[in-house]
Design goal:
Helices cover 15% and strands 45% of the residues. The chain is mostly beta strands. It has a twelve-stranded antiparallel beta barrel. A hairpin with a 2-residue loop joins strand 11 and strand 12 (309-318). The protein starts with a helix and ends with a strand.
Length: 341
């Protein structure tokens, strides 16, 4: 068996226990949570993530996403019944998004990439899923289909944009990870726990623990996280949106007051069994490094909801994702703008 295949098999075995633990947490009920009011709005979100906010140009270097969240109550009967059988009572809504993620090594000027650094890779994926909401919980189940490799058009996007703004081109895309289909299954749950209300200052404080897991040809991981928020109108959403993987409140929001704002801080830990953008193509030789099985993140930011629009910024600090990664904590920023129709 080729070395990459052996690593793939070994990582999958390590992954069994974290997946079981996450499954038990995801199955935790919400018997005491009520159902919020129906939401007739369609939500469209445009999002970009980039390491330029961390003054770097390496690792997870850029991501873009377009998401559409349909109104509540438009789930087909069979899916609605299945969703209720999993999560219980609550509001349901369908979401659809398409995203592209780009990954590069530190030295993008080199024609021959450093074999010990992160390989070039691009992922283009479309996701379809269901968001299930109660007053105190939000649960997500989704399916993603796409491609990893040259067909994801990472070279064309990055170098085309660099040409436009006059930045140097990345010269190693010819050595990127080869084409492979991407199939991803996602399940996630977030709990919203009100902690404190200060009537004099009209301030609220809440905590949001969350657990999620993904299994597929691109990424196998389990993530456990925690976020603290302070502001006004915290029951308008379940936190800011992030591209997967990462702590995310999804695209869903419904303002509960004319002007909603909050600041937040959070952290998460990810147990990673396999990441094809690092470990390479399974059962096929090619560029790869060894992914680190445990990755941590810290994040801070803010969100504002006004006039039907939501704007959020999240700054992320991330520990090493692969063995031999240099440069200390990796940083990137996430900006999302959403509108309700």
């Amino acid at each position: 068996m080729p070395k990459v295949a052996e690593e793939f098999s070994r990582h999958r075995k390590i992954f069994v226990l974290p997946v079981c633990a996450a499954a038990m947490l995801l199955a935790a009920g919400s018997a005491h949570a009520g159902t919020p009011l129906p939401d007739p709005g369609t939500i469209v979100t445009i999002q970009t993530e980039n390491d330029v906010f961390g003054h770097t140009d390496r690792n997870y270097t850029a991501g873009i996403r377009l998401g559409v969240m349909l109104p509540t109550g438009e789930l087909p009967g069979v899916l609605s019944d299945l969703d209720h059988s999993i999560w219980g009572e609550g509001l349901q809504r369908l979401y659809l998004d398409i995203s592209q993620s780009l990954f590069t090594p530190k030295d993008t000027a080199a024609v021959t990439p450093d074999p010990k650094d992160r390989p070039y890779a691009a992922v283009l994926i479309t996701r379809l899923g269901i968001v299930h909401t109660t007053d105190l919980t939000q649960s997500v189940v989704g399916l993603g289909l796409g491609v990893l490799g040259p067909s994801a058009e990472g070279e064309q996007l990055q170098n085309g944009f660099h040409d436009l703004i006059g930045d140097p081109r990345s010269n190693g895309w010819h050595a990127q990870i080869k084409n492979m289909p991407v199939v991803q299954i996602l399940a996630a749950r977030t709990w919203r726990l009100p902690l404190l209300t200060v009537p004099v200052a009209d301030l609220e404080l809440d905590a949001m623990p969350s657990v999620s897991g993904t299994v597929g040809t691109w990424l196998d991981n389990v993530q456990v996280g925690f976020q603290l928020r302070m502001g006004q109108g915290l029951d308008s959403d379940f936190g800011p949106v992030r591209m997967s993987p990462g702590l995310t409140g999804t695209d869903a929001y419904m303002p509960t007051r004319p002007f909603v704002w909050y600041v937040f801080a959070g952290a998460d830990g990810q147990a990673i069994a396999w990441d094809s953008t690092l470990d390479g193509n399974p059962f096929r030789s090619g560029p790869h490094v060894s992914s680190v099985p445990l990755v941590g993140e810290m994040e801070v930011g803010f969100a504002i909801i006004a006039y039907g629009l939501r704007f959020s910024y999240t700054h992320v600090l991330q520990t090493a994702e692969f063995r031999g990664q240099r440069g200390g904590l990796f940083q990137f920023g996430s900006v999302a703008v959403a509108a309700r129709f």
